[in-house]
Amino acid sequence: METVAIYLVVTFACGFVARMVKLPTLIGYLAAGFILHSPGIDELPVVDTLADFGVTTLLFTIGLKLDLRMLFRREVIVATMANLIAVVGLTTGFLGLLATIGVRMLAGEDWQVLALLGFALSFSSTVFVVQVLDDRSEASSLYGRIAIGVLVLQDVVAVAFLTVMSGESPSPWAAALILLLPGAWLVHKLWNRLGHGELQTLFGITIALVPGYWLFESVGIKGDFGAMVVGVLLASHPRAAELSRTLFGFRELLLVGFFVSIGLHVDPTTETVLLGLLLTALLPVEGALLTLALAAFGLRKRTSILAGLALANFSEFGLIVIASGVQAGLIVGDWLVVTSVAVAASFVFSTLVNRRGTGLVNRLSAFVPTPRSNRFHPDDAHIDLANATALVLGVGRVGRAVHDRLSLEYGLTVIGVENDPVKVRGLRADGVRVLEADATEADFWERCINDDDVEIIVLAMPFHGSNLVAMDHVGRRDFEGTIAVVAQYDDEREELISMGADVAFHIYEGTGVGLADSAAEAAGLDS
Questions:
Q1: How many structural domains is the chain composed of?
Q2: 503: part of which helix (H) or strand (E)?
Q3: Hey, CA dihedral for 470, 475, 479, 485, is it positive or negative?
Q4: Which terminus of the chain, N or C, has less C-beta within 10 A?
């Protein structure tokens, strides 16, 4: 129990210090691993277990939100493959250069070893990137979806490589995994009967770890990858987003173990630390390559740069690749230490870069070519709001009622904004003019043009946090019309009013009809 107490106190203290100096807490957890390892404190096997559970739960929740169409887009496939090839070549050349100037660890290493190191460092960290996107609430943004698409393809390549390295083919029983397709239908039926409480949370964890992790591992396929596959099979369920949100806090707690575990298994020396830090010099090049590859497909500068910056780090998969190489006798154990230091340092680098935000993006834009107007990517082109007099952000039950009331009763030209593609298809089939976009993204607002005629903006999204983010974006555009928002609680209504909303309507007070009437009245319109 004493060892557990030491682990908890050190980990909490390091996370707290990181927060106080305005760094992500995961940097503190990385430091805690190195601190706990250095004085020879007994290792806790449970930390590795928590780390494994955290990564498995993370990949399961990614699967719940994954848009499979993104994986087959040219820009994602080309960016992934081009980055892999280029980073392997650059790393091999960089390490070869260090060998020629006399770095002792590289003396006598052949090109196969250098290429293996390059391959291990060509992956970006799924855990870290998802953390960055979640902190920004931009996982569903275009650049966020592209980044996740690249990560998933990288994971597929890594899983294939590790299977080959193990020297064992998947079991013949792996073909039976096709039964997960009809099995998913049965799970959907079960899910409908669970309600919204702790039973649903337990259901999610069980599904991720049993038919996800354990079932795939038992047939010779990496369990983490299996958890993501099962998540994808369940992503079409109406409660998938709710389950993902429910598991968020649990997942974040488990991932503390992942970051602590990185530092618990290495014995760094001065040489291995310095070499690991030197490898971070490759990160700006990796980010630039990804940025230019995406820009070549007509993506806007901001989208390309943000995706490149998010992916400019080394991956936990790199540690697994090197560990497999050590086990197979292809590479010496000291390289696992070097890679661990490089991964940890890359998280620090990527954190510092990604927190710079818009200012850094603007400075880097000068070095990225601007797509011609006729070559803009269709998902990243300008959004023309010409002739629209009202915007409804979030076209669910409330938003649809607002849309119909403003258009039919008040004669306004209304455009809806909805990020759920299933809802968008249904709304368009009903003749509703709606954009498939996320109003919480900075990208959406930057792409909007010809919005001078807009008189009313209604924020009808179901989550208060989403309305707050969208409200902030509207405020930055110096919108002079009427802003109406739904709120579930009195304190939420007061907060929205303080941010500049003209009308913050309680969601239970007449819902859509009352909100539309209040917005129109505030705008001085007559029915």
A1: 2
A2: strand 503-506
A3: positive
A4: N
